[in-house]
Fold these 3 entries.
Entry 1:
Amino acid sequence: MVATLHSVRKSPDAEGDDYKTLIGMARATSDHAFNATIWDVLVDPSYQGQGLGKALVEKMIRALLQRDIGNISLFADSKVVDFYQNLGFEPDPEGIKGMFWHPK
Ligand SMILES: CC(C)(COP(=O)(O)OP(=O)(O)OC[C@H]1O[C@@H](n2cnc3c(N)ncnc32)[C@H](O)[C@@H]1OP(=O)(O)O)[C@@H](O)C(=O)NCCC(=O)NCCS
């Protein structure tokens, strides 16, 4: 699932196409049963601090819940842990740890 945010500038010409610019996105992968992971939550720096990132994540949560997917996880950079905690995410529920494998 991909959610996108666009800024839309009306064409001065009544018949002309509007100008759409991508200013934010979020992505989720899921098993279509119980679990989803949110990735790549991004808002263009010139549009940050206006509630758009929060709206994007809340929209994604609502869309997943509508599909009965209620077990939602993500990986948070240390700079955005508070952002996600504000949205109801908690670190390491039930002692679950993210684990990584790297080629040695
Ligand atoms: C993180 C990001 C998506 C937030 O988007 P945003 O549109 O600026 O955030 P919002 O304006 O919706 O902020 C919602 C709330 O979170 C808070 N917040 C925003 N960024 C925060 C941060 N880095 N740390 C803590 N709180 C933050 C805001 O103050 C606001 O609080 P409020 O509801 O009490 O007013 C955006 O800064 C971004 O794209 N960052 C670069 C990419 C990135 O790090 N993505 C996360 C990948 S793990």
Entry 2:
Amino acid sequence: MTNTIWTDSIFRWAGSKRKLLPILINNVPNNYERYIEPFCGSACLFFAIKPMSAILSDINGELIHTFEQIKNTPSLIAKTLSNISVSKEIYDNYRQQKPTHLTDFERAIRFTYLNRNCFNGVYRTNQRGEFNVPMGTRTGEVPDEIRFIKCAEALKNAKLISQDFEKLLPDIQKNDFVYLDPPYAKKDYKGRGEYGPGAFQYEDITRMLTFLEEVNHRGANFLFSYAYDEELIQQLPQSWYWESVLVGRHVAGFSQHRKHVQEILVSNYKIKI
Ligand SMILES: C[S@@+](CC[C@H](N)C(=O)[O-])C[C@H]1O[C@@H](n2cnc3c(N)ncnc32)[C@H](O)[C@@H]1O
């Protein structure tokens, strides 16, 4: 897949679906009333298609809080960030700060600064829920003010919620389009705090499938992206569709170790690859 599609998304995010955007966009249903993303992360699909009505949800409270602040004060956030220099000393200082001791605005600045300058856009915490990713070497420039304003405009149409994906079920209605992109959990691997406390584990796949059955039952369309997993494929109802796709990814987080990995798309309508 060589085509790239622009998205106004602000954050660098491990597991972002930027590379899959051409296929994802091609598979967004033509007629839907609301866009719902229960594992939104950097929400790169949302910021590429900018739906008229949406719910963006994620278990990461700092992420959702920052989206809320960008929605309200995009220019102030962009200007403040552009005046903070990039250095390990400042990075480590932000990393040590406790979000609960900061104002709403300071929390958003801290989150965005750490995200733009951490190693590979990884969000990982220790057991106390404290962000513990070191500074990266190939860090991203802070996007310009115009990009923050464009994000804020798109976010004006979105309700933002921080919660476990399952809690979103009562909100889902007929004619919604639900795009789900949970972390690729591995069997017998509890993780090292990737995506923070309460993050999706391999055992949650069963919950996920029950969730999808209920989304389908409610008359909504869903598109679900995941790692290629035979056990998961075996559990899919016959009436659903799935396709495998090859995606170029950096392995073990290093740019020189790039290879094509097999992923799948699952849906309750026909998928175009
Ligand atoms: C692979 S990332 C999503 C990436 C996103 N599609 C993008 O393009 O940036 C998975 C997201 O799921 C969130 N997450 C993990 N466990 C969750 C849970 N149990 N409920 C809701 N969100 C969860 C993580 O915080 C992370 O942002």
Entry 3:
Amino acid sequence: MSRFLAGPFAPVDEEVTAFDLPVTGRVPGELAGRYLRIGPNALGVEDPAAHHWMSGPGMVHGVRIRDGRAEWYRNRWVRSEQVRGLLGEPSGGAACEIGIDFACNTHVIGHGGRTLALMEDWACPQELTAELDTVGPYALGGVRPGFTMGAHTKLDPLTGELHGLAYLSGRRTARHLVVDGAGRLVHEAEIPLDGNPMMHDFALTERWVVVYDSPVVFSPEAMSTGARTPYTRDPRRPSRVGVLPRAGGGVRWFEAPDAFVSHTLNAYDDGERVVLELVTLPADFDIAAMRMSRYGTLDRWTVDLSAGTVCEQRLDDRPQEFPRIADTVVSRPHRYGYTAATAAMYQAYVPAGDGPLPDEAFVNALIKHDTVRGTSEVHTFERDAAAGEAVFVPAAGGRAEDDGYVMGYVHDPRRGAADLVILAAQDFTAEPIARIHLPRRVPLGLHGSWLPDR
Ligand SMILES: [Fe+2]
């Protein structure tokens, strides 16, 4: 059986609704909104041995918080027509006019009052209700084939514009898209590509859009290997970054370190340099086998636009993923970043992961990075906890960049269920302010958001 159907990754098999969740500690009264996180949750697996983690339909896990209470927990599969069929439900009726009808499993965001599940490539964004039921396909930027926005969008905190990168397997172009708060397309730019690289994330600064041309490529032949993913590693393909003006214009390519960029922490302009802080995987990342020689590290790549070079600096060589910053500093200089270190992730991906971890003390932890001072604080959870991505939520009226909360799902091995853990970002290693006890396990998932009430 695939390792992604077992242990912390094992899917859950039913949808649950629970009200008035028990809490250890105190839920800050100023928090009003929903914390949502999505991930693949397999359904109707035909061949458990060959199951690929990323191929599972998305399931959203959400907690609603208001007036110091955790009002509800819900988990819901995103409904594609296939998911509806597997669940024995009638057709949803609405056809996806811009891409493929797949139950998006990678990110869930709020934009313009809507809750949207996202995935890259041709997957059509899907709108969810406030209570996580699927409304149907939603075409950010209008109904035009291929305008799928990708999995990782960037919301400019000053303009309120949402930037996305649409890349489409089988097409030798990507597209930078910008939509306003009402979901209207306000800018688009074509990015010619040499081949069909996987472009999971990108970066945004005040002046530039930065895209990653990776050694992982779309390959229909890969599907025939039983890998169940259309992407495969091309060891001959060099790693590049492309820089194009936000307002439009041609892309300029730079030779990049030999690595696969999995996620951007943030990016910003520094005169004629573009600073990218990101999590990279080694160039031998084999997405079909879901194996690599080491796990993700936190790095800084500095693109010198005058010299035409990219300099690499390792900020933290401990295995970690899921970098997040305060949404208020996206595309501008930042100081703090937050990542997750998860033993189960490391053990699932790295061949030697069945053996001792690189640092036994550094597992199942959330990390707060001070990228200006070059220091970090580690909030360690118990053995067999599984800390996933954590998001930063600003305190009401907070002025400092880290004045707020860090929240995410962490497995509690004593209960066999997940907690939504809320840390004080400025007292990061202290006991959590609150542990909201969910009634069940939440499988290790991908990305999510805090969606405040408006
Ligand atoms: Fe991602």
